[in-house]
Amino acid sequence: MVHVSVIVPAHNEERWLARTLESIETAFAGQGVSHEVLVVNDASTDRTPEIALRFGARLVSVQHRQIAATRNAGAREAQGEVLLFVDADTALRAPVVRAALEALAAGAVGGGCRVEFDGPLSGYARFLARVGYRAQRVLRFAAGCFVFCTRAAFEATGGFDEAMYAAEEYEFSKALRKQGRFVVLHESVLTSGRKLRTYSGGELTKTLLRLGLAGKRGVRRREALPVWYEPRREDPIEVPRADPVDQGPSR
After folding, report:
1. Do the domain assignments include residue 245?
2. pTM
């Protein structure tokens, strides 16, 4: 029987982590596979570690303040033949777990999925979300909130590039494609739309343009990436419940 390691990187995620951990247990119920959950606590100063332990997750503590290094730390501690990387503000759903495991069983080495955002969003934010999914399908890369792969493929790539402070999931997806078939599932996860709510359209556009012009140089300094690394802005909405509904087959 396959054993799955779910790796949840977390920095000051006390507000969202309980929903994520609840959703993982619900998503794996009835899947017929064993699994473990690792919360990789990256320099949190809030109740993130306490919440992780309360839900029975294995706690791994690091001081990186870098998502790539934090994911890699979780992978090193994981025991599964399959690795699922799920962000701490992302609710997992049973259909996407099932589709990911089926894709791997059919010979894929890894992949990602469609992303839905919770809470109210502006028209501009909804447009960015639609463009993002189309880009995923065309360019074949995983959104960072949900990435899956075999352990063998992860080790063959060397994991996430720790020189990058953002867009590391894109480079990791490229590395996985060199190992074999990479899929982007139609099934979805539900992730927080907090960045799309707490940053204006102008701020987001400026960030995307700057990164586009700078290329890899633009993601190698934490200080140049305030959307990812500045103190988190307060999201005005309550944490929504995880919606288990997910329509449509993978394609």
Report:
1. no
2. 0.91
